[in-house]
Design brief:
heterodimer, A: two-stranded antiparallel ribbon, B: 821 residues, mainly alpha, 3 domains, two-stranded antiparallel ribbon, 67% helix, 4% strand
């Protein structure tokens, strides 16, 4: 399915152009600045909804080709499945000499993320409506950030993926350092940037090693034959060379065992490099013990940045970890995910426990993100269809939910000028909309049926049970098996703690007594803020009641990964 | 499609059962809930929160009240009519459930390779609930019209309670465990919002959080069980699992993923997880602690939670999943058959927890003075009866008791609400009186001691926050101080303040006695007798065969039944008999006989009294002398209706023990004995004002206080769970996260800073030393050379001369012109 124009490029370049355009508008013309920002964000959202729903329709109509190509020399069933699930593809050579191309495409896994990015972009522009300090520059950097995030999700080229990944980090630093909470912003911006940069550099080294290894493989006789066969079958671009950053070609290499060759002594390449790449990106997903940049970053950031940061940026890490580490090095995944799942469990329980103790409203939400992102990693670690579908749903659900949370926190903070939970109270009377949507977010986060959190968590739990028999961890002296079922019980108890802190925060901030002497008459909620709440809150309910609006699409997205993992 | 035909299609109709209340919730929330702002001090607001002084607060408008109540009632009536239609059609089917059930389903979510189907289903088991739930809920709704008539948020109340009803009905018609869980959780949420309905009051929202958190722990474990079951079977549909003997056999003989080494089967583990969910929801030991606190909600909510909906849902889930707990096949390994004394983990869990809870809660009920607290403990105890019955395989008896209990417990709660209402009325009358004349010195009742206030802080608050605290609005100008001072001290729920109410509120009295006697199992003429007797009969049958669990259940339940009769009589005597012990009780009443409050609060009592008396006659054993031939000439009708809800597989098929007179006599003895003892202690010589409870004299104050303080379980949990988890959270936060992880990070940062400094020093010393040293030495050299630039010709010539000399010597030596030596 194609549209008459390069729709994915439009998703990236509309925000970029808008960001540049904004810089040329006089700072005093705030209405024009806002107008340009919101127009571009709404257009981005509309386009992302367009691609999302047309992909969904294709899935429901059974229009996704179920390829089962088997070649003579080597096989590329999964590669073909991966390639055939990419829609709206654009492929333009960029630096042909080293195999870098401008290659975009969207599949079932990236589709929900694209939609989420569009939603959070609009919500972020709206929530920053009243910023008075250098609004022009703020919006310019914000749009650049949106473009970077969008780019990562739809890149089909390793180089392009890293390019957009770094593009997303750079405006984030400036936005936090320049517009953040004065007390913490320099520290937090520095902490965040260093963590993520170091993580991505580690991953980048691994990625380059991967490209080189793949190139070496395609130089061999067997590799050349595989490549020729794949080209003949139309899976790979006809003018492909051995050296390529193209994700489809790297998948082909992975499927044919290019990364399973010995690398260091008896240790194969993928077993050696998997932890570096997975955890390198996992840093961005808040993986324990590399999570501490995130709560500080969330708290220090201005509301819109917290929203996109926790809502979308953390998913970027989880998404890239799946796409580059798990998909490219399935054997590494089978070796290492069985212990990484422990880190994910720690994430879930640990984040919830810390969130329970916070006095600062925003830190509660910050640590809750750490906790919920643990479930995503846990879903990847199940390595089965149910659990990974759940993880995909959790990415979307958590993205919208946490952005909603930060929006609510921002609305309270803008009025009360404090985030100290014990001194707040009774805001249900002042901001009933905010209170109701905060509760909706809270119910989602505690996995209440009828909200998207439940349809995400249930498959993850189920996937964990299912994986319990299939996965075991070789510790050298002994082999650990069936421990996924223990971990899932621990994680489920983490969700109980979630319920406890959500109720605690809700009752202390929104119920209880309103301190009239201190806060006086506060301005009521604006129409713009209501739009933010609706935009982020309604999808939580829609997805919760009717998960078929997303689940089948995500399953389509992970089928190639499952094929590579040998689970399908 | 023919709509009329569709609306009469029993396969489709179950979808519509929850729709009425759900629509009511939506309509009330978004359309009819309209409030106007009044000052917080206004009597219309009911003095909910003095701290809102000077603020405008919303109070529902009269029109909104009428509309919301109408919409809410219509929703329930719609559910009731549809349910009765379905049940009517079910009764017309011969052997309903054996082959024919009413069911339909749609695809809901595809995860991975399987698609999950959501649907509805009616079989004999939930057909019973479709009779009980809508009738009880309708009564509660009618009652709420009067009870909440002066509440500033009555519309919201009707919205929430409609959602509650919708959730319960969803759970009832669900055809799979996941949809059941949806209803289950939404009910948990509604109970949270309704227990905390008067959220300005600390005790209420604390109770709400407690209820939600405690049940949540259990729910999450249940959810894990559901996930595991789904993994094992690939379906959660009740019929597909429960009617498949091969599947049941397989999961009950496969070793469990956890504790498999201990001989636990997969089915046993799943079953235990699901039962833990019920232990939370149905308030069984050790997770019963939330239920007594749940009285903080308005009384109709208590009736909803304790009778019609929430706790019944827990038992219903166990009934529904019963074949799974037992398993099919030969009774070995994980498969059990309680009828021949073969037990597995889930059954033992059910029997032990149920029987223990039944007795444990009954002992606490004996020492309570709050009229609603006694009922709360009696609920826990009666649910224990049902759990224990299921544990010994008395499937039909448990279902029977579930239904009769729902009717008489709803009746009792509403009657107690009526009592509280009447007492408040008396308090106001007295207050009015006191203002007309000088306060009478004798009206300080004995109970206004620090101890009483300490024992019942919640109840004292409840009095103050009750919607009727300002029933007589025109007295508000008498001043808030007396009003509040009085409200805090007087506890309209404390039975020691009552006495002699029989004459004041006769309809309520009769209703309460009928409900109470049904609870006590008064022989032959109450529904409670027949259902309780069934449980004891089955337990006795097993006891005769020498099976341990049955014997345990029989004896514990017999003692519990005795205590039940005793505390019921104590409650009736303390509340209604003798002379009023306080001035408030003297003036108690429900207002005029024709007032809307009086009518709407008493009509449900009459309806439910009918069921509390006669519902038992549908389940009389055929062989029962005299009654059997009258009511069950063709065999026990209840038994034969329910029979086909499970597969006729020997392990779990409903089983009818041969008639035995002994358990009947035991039922007679414990019911009548308990009632007599209660009457002897409290009825023959009614308690006088200021007198100590005879119970305290007999038990001694230590035991009595222990019982009253609920065996200090709340304090124990605080020490065992609440405090340690807070401690852990604090440690994780400050020590681990901020200390170790951030500390490591900062240490790394500090190390690199130090390293940077070191390099900087090295840099300035070594690199800069070299780098700067070269130009500096050139400079120095230059400076030194500059000293030769004196400008004097003589010195230059001298220098030239010396230079020539040196060059000449060097040349001479090197060229060999001058040869040294």
């Amino acid at each position: 399915m194609e549209f008459g124009f390069p729709v994915l490029s439009a998703l990236i370049f509309i925000p970029v152009v808008a960001g540049v355009l904004i810089l040329f508008i006089p700072a005093a013309s705030r209405d024009i600045i806002r107008g340009v920002a919101i127009t571009s964000a709404v257009v981005t959202l509309s386009l992302s909804a367009l691609v999302y729903f047309s992909y969904l329709n294709a899935v429901n109509a059974g229009a996704i080709p179920q390829t089962t190509v088997e070649a003579e020399e080597g096989s590329f069933r999964a590669t073909a499945a991966f390639k055939d699930r990419q829609f709206y593809v654009e492929n333009i050579p960029w630096v042909p000499s080293v195999g870098i191309s401008y290659h975009l495409g969207m599949d079932g896994l990236s589709g929900p993320m694209v939609l989420l990015t569009g939603m959070v972009a609009v919500a972020g522009v709206l929530i920053s409506w009243q910023i008075s300090d250098r609004q022009r520059e703020f919006y310019a950097f914000f749009m650049l950030l949106v473009a970077g995030v969008m780019g990562v999700f739809i890149s089909l080229d390793m180089f392009l993926l890293f390019f957009f990944y770094e593009l997303a980090i750079f405006p984030m630093y400036i936005l936090i350092a320049g517009w953040g909470w004065v007390k913490l912003r320099e520290y937090a911006a520095m902490k965040l940037t260093l963590y993520i940069l170091i993580g991505s550099v580690v991953a980048l080294v691994g990625a380059i090693a991967m490209v080189v290894t793949a190139a070496t493989y395609f130089e061999t006789e067997a590799g050349r034959q595989v490549l020729q066969a794949a080209i003949a079958a139309g899976v790979i671009n006809p003018n492909a060379t051995a050296v390529s950053f193209d994700l489809i070609q790297l998948t082909l290499a992975a499927e044919n065992g290019a990364f399973s060759l010995p690398f260091l002594g008896t240790v194969s390449f993928d077993v050696f490099w998997f932890p570096f790449i997975f955890i390198g990106f996992g840093v961005m997903a808040g993986l324990f013990p590399f999570h501490n940049w995130s709560p500080d970053g969330h708290v220090a950031a201005p509301t819109a940045v917290s929203m996109i940061h926790a809502g979308v940026l953390m998913k970027l890490g989880a998404f890239a970890a799946l796409r580059t580490a798990v998909q490219m090095m399935p054997e590494g995944a089978q070796t290492h995910l069985p212990w990484i799942v422990f880190l994910a469990t720690v994430n879930v329980v640990y984040g919830a426990l810390i969130a329970f103790r916070q006095r600062d409203f925003k830190y509660v939400i910050g640590f809750s993100s750490v906790s919920h992102m643990g479930l995503v990693t846990m879903g990847w670690a199940t390595m089965n269809a149910v659990g990974m579908t759940g993880a995909g749903l959790q990415m979307f659900s958590h993205g919208a939910m946490t952005a909603l949370f930060f929006g609510c926190v921002g609305m309270v903070y803008d009025r009360a000028h404090t985030r100290d939970i014990p001194s707040l109270g009774g805001f249900m009377k002042i901001l009933p909309w905010t209170g109701v949507f905060f509760i909706i977010g809270g119910l989602t986060s505690m996995g209440m049926p009828g909200f998207s959190g439940f349809v995400a968590e249930f498959p993850i739990f189920q996937g964990m049970w299912e994986a319990s028999d299939a996965v075991s961890l070789d510790l050298g002296v002994t082999t650990l098996s069936s421990y996924y079922s223990f971990l899932v019980i621990l994680a489920a108890l983490g969700i109980v703690i979630t319920a406890a802190y959500v109720l605690r925060v809700t009752s202390q901030v929104f119920f209880g007594e309103y301190n009239r002497a201190r806060y006086g008459e506060l301005p009521p909620i604006t129409i713009v803020e209501r739009a933010v709440l609706l935009l982020l809150g309604v999808p939580l309910i829609v997805l919760g009641l009717y998960p078929s609006i997303m689940a089948p699409m995500i399953t389509e997205g992970i089928i190639p990964v499952l094929m590579l993992l040998g689970r399908m | 499609m023919d709509i009329a035909l569709l609306l009469n299609d029993p396969n489709f109709l179950p979808w519509l059962v929850p729709v009425g209340p759900l629509l009511a919730f939506i309509i009330i929330t978004f359309a009819t809930n309209r409030a106007r702002l009044v000052p917080a001090t206004s009597h219309e607001y009911g003095g909910h929160h003095p701290d809102y002084n000077g603020m405008l607060v919303p109070v529902v408008t009269p029109l909104s009240r009428v509309l919301s109540v109408t919409v809410g009632l219509s929703g329930v009536v719609m559910a009731l009519l549809i349910s009765l239609n379905i049940v009517g059609q079910a009764l017309g089917v011969r052997h309903f459930g054996e082959e024919v059930v009413f069911a339909s389903a749609v695809e809901w979510m595809a995860t991975g390779t399987t698609a999950f189907r959501m649907g509805v289903m009616v079989d004999p088991l939930n057909a019973l609930l479709l009779v009980m739930v809508p009738i009880a809920v309708l009564c509660i709704f009618i009652y709420s019209i009067g009870y909440m008539a002066h509440d500033p948020r009555q519309s919201r109340f009707f919205a929430l309670i409609s959602l509650f009803a919708a959730a319960m009905l969803t759970l009832t018609v669900a055809d799979n465990l996941l949809l059941l869980f949806v209803g289950w959780e939404v009910m948990g949420l509604c109970s949270y919002m309704l227990i905390g309905f008067w959220f300005e009051k600390h005790s209420a929202y604390r109770a709400a959080i407690k209820a939600f958190t405690v049940t949540r722990v259990a729910d999450v474990i249940m959810l894990l069980g559901i996930a595991y079951l789904y993994t094992m079977t690939g379906t959660l549909n009740f019929r597909e699992i429960m009617q498949d003997a091969a599947l049941l056999n397989a999961i009950n003989t496969a070793p469990a993923i956890l504790f498999g080494g201990l001989g636990v089967s997969a089915g046993g583990l799943i079953g235990s997880f699901l039962i833990i969910g019920t232990i939370g929801k149905s308030a069984q030991f050790p997770l019963h602690v939330w239920l007594p606190d749940a009285m903080e909600g308005p009384t109709p909510v208590s009736a909803m939670i304790h009778a019609a909906a929430m706790v019944s849902a827990g038992i219903y889930a166990v009934l529904r999943m019963f074949p799974l707990f037992v398993g099919a096949g030969d009774p070995i390994g994980g498969v059990a058959n309680p009828h021949i004394g073969v037990y597995n983990l889930p059954l033992v869990l059910l029997a032990v927890v149920g029987a223990f809870t039944a007795l444990f809660a009954a002992t606490m009920a004996v020492a309570q003075n709050d009229v609603k607290a006694v009922l709360a403990y009696s609920t826990i105890s009666q649910l224990g009866f049902m759990m224990a019955a299921l544990g010994i395989g008395a499937y039909v008896a448990a279902a029977f008791h579930l239904i009769t209990h729902a009717f008489f417990k709803a009746l009792l709660f509403m009657a107690s609400g009526s009592v509280i209402h009447a007492m408040e009325h008396g308090a106001h009358h007295l207050h009015e009186h006191a203002h007309d004349h000088e306060p009478e010195p004798t009206t300080r009742p004995y109970y206004e001691t620090a101890q009483a206030a300490e024992a019942h802080p919640e109840a004292a608050h409840a009095a103050h926050d009750d919607p009727h605290a300002h029933d007589h609005g025109h007295h508000a100008e008498h001043g808030h101080h007396e009003e509040h001072g009085h409200g805090h001290a007087f506890d309209p729920q404390d039975m020691r303040n009552m006495g002699g109410l029989a004459k004041k509120i006769p309809v309520t009295f009769v209703g309460f006695v009928i409900g109470g006697f049904a609870l006590a199992g008064f022989p032959l003429i109450t529904a409670g007798f027949w259902s309780k007797d069934e449980i004891l009969a089955e337990a006795w049958y097993g006891t005769l065969k020498g099976y341990g669990p049955q014997a345990l259940v029989f004896f514990l339940l017999a003692v519990a039944a005795f205590l039940t009769a005793f505390y019921t009589m104590r409650q009736i005597c303390l509340t209604f008999l003798g002379e009023p012990r306080t001035e408030e009780a003297k003036h108690a009443g429900l207002g005029g006989a024709r007032s809307i409050v009086s009518i709407t609060m008493q009509l449900p009592l009459i309806i439910l009294s009918f069921f509390a008396l006669f519902a038992g006659f549908v389940g009389v054993p055929k062989e029962f002398p005299l009654f059997g031939p009258i009511f069950s000439p063709d065999g026990n009708p209840f038994f034969h209706f329910l029979e086909f809800s499970v597969l006729p597989e020997p392990n779990f098929a409903p089983f009818h023990p041969p008639f035995n007179l002994f358990p009947v006599l035991v039922s007679f003895a414990v019911a009548l004995g308990g009632l007599y003892l209660g009457w002897r202690m409290y009825g023959r010589r009614p308690l006088q004002a200021g007198e100590t409870d005879p119970m305290e004299r007999i038990l001694g104050s230590a035991v009595y206080t222990t019982l009253q303080k609920r065996y200090y379980m709340d304090d124990l949990y605080s020490v065992l769970f609440v405090k340690p988890s807070q401690w852990l959270a604090r440690q994780v936060n400050t020590f681990l996260d901020r200390g170790v992880i951030d500390g490591t990070l900062h240490a790394i940062g500090a190390f690199f800073t130090w390293l940077g400094d070191l390099i900087k020093v090295l840099n300035s010393w070594l690199i800069d030393g070299v780098g700067d040293g070269i130009p500096r030495s050139i400079y120095t050299l230059g400076g030194w050379l500059r000293g030769t630039q004196t400008g004097r010709i003589q010195q230059y010539l001298l220098a030239v001369l010396i230079a020539f000399l040196i060059i000449g010597i060097v040349l001479a030596v090197s060229s060999g012109v001058v040869t040294a030596g």
